[in-house]
C-alpha cells in the first residue's frame, strides 16, 4: 500500500505556479486573486487567511474584501460588478457559505466566468460537462492532479464517487468520466452502497462523516481518495474513511490531513495563473 502525499504534490504545483508568476511579473503582469468574505465565520476566516498567504507566497497579487454580516445581496453584487470590470483582477472567489439572507446562486452567477477561478459558474459547469476547457472546481481538479502524479490509470476503470455536491461530488464524477472511467455517483438515497463500492477500482469519498467508508466496502487493491474533513471532539482531524482498516486493503490511499486538503489551495493558485494567462497573454 502506498500513501498519496498531497502535501508534496501541492508544493510541486505551487512551485510551478510561482515560477510562472515570476516570469509574468517580468512582463508587467501580476496574476491577482480577489477574495470576498462576508461575516464572521471562524472557519471561513481561516480559509481566507490561508488563501491570501499562499497567493502572496506564489508571488501573485492578493486583494481581500472582508464585509460585515449585514452586507446586503445588492451591495455584494455591486462589489462583484466592480471586480468584474477591474482589469487588474484575474480571479474572484466568494468564500462560502454566505449569510442566509444572500442567495449564493445569484452571487456565483454574477461572477465573470473568465474570472471564476472556483469553477462554480453555470457556464464553467457546462463546459466541464461538455468536455470543454474552462475553470474546474479546485478540490476535484486537485484530485485529478494527484491521480496523474501517481500514474494512476483512470481510463477503463470503475470509479465510485460518494457524494453529489456541486463543489466536490458532481465535478469529480464529470472529470473521471471525461478521463474514461465508468462512473457511479452514490449519495444518501443509494441502496446497498457497500455492493456499489465493492465493484470499484477507484473510490472517492466526499460525505463529511468520520469512518463512513469501511473495509468491507473496499475491493482489494482499490485506490481510495478521502475528501472528508471532520473535526472530532478530541480536536483530531479525520477524513471519511476508516483509515486504519481500509488502508491495508488499498493499493493507494490519501491520508487526512495531508492528502486532498493541500491540493485545493494549490489548484486555486493554478486557476488564478491560468486566468491571468488567458486574459492577458492570449489578448
Ligand atoms: P455536502 O455538500 O454536505 O455533500 C455531502 C454528500 O454526501 C451529499 O451528496 C450527500 O447525499 C452524501 N451523503 C450523506 N450521507 C450519505 C450516506 N449515508 N450515504 C451516501 N451518501 C451520503 O459536502 P461537500 O461540500 O461535498 O463536502 C464533503 C466533505 O468533503 C466534507 O467533509 C467537507 O468538509 C470536505 N471537503 C473537503 C475539501 C478539501 O479541500 N479537502 C473541499 C471541500 C469539501 P445527498 O446529496 O443525497 O444529501
Keywords:
283 residues, alpha/beta, Rossmann fold, six-stranded parallel sheet, three-stranded parallel sheet, binds NADP nicotinamide-adenine-dinucleotide phosphate, THF_DH/CycHdrlase_CS, methenyltetrahydrofolate cyclohydrolase activity, methylenetetrahydrofolate dehydrogenase (NADP+) activity, EC 1.5.1.5, THF_DH/CycHdrlase
Radius of gyration: 19 Å
The distinct ligands, each listed once, are: NADP nicotinamide-adenine-dinucleotide phosphate
Order of helices and strands: EHEHEHEHHHEHEHEEEEHEH
Q: How many separate structural domains?
A: 2
Mean pLDDT: 97
Low-confidence sequence ranges = none
Q: How many β-strand runs?
A: 11
Structural class label: alpha/beta
Give the second-level CATH assignment, the architecture of the largest domain. Answer: 3-Layer(aba) Sandwich
Which percent range describes the beta-strand content?
A: 15-25%
Number of helices, counting only DSSP H or I runs of 4 residues or more: 10
Strand order of the largest sheet: 1-11-8-7-5-6
User: And the CATH topology of the largest domain?
Assistant: Rossmann fold
**What share of the residues lie within helices?**
40-55%
Oligomer: single chain
| Inertia-based shape | globular
In whole angstroms, the N-to-C terminal distance is 47 Å
Give the biggest sheet.
Answer: 6 strands, parallel
Kindly provide the name of the CATH class of the largest domain: Alpha Beta
The fourth-level CATH homologous superfamily of the largest domain is NAD(P)-binding Rossmann-like Domain
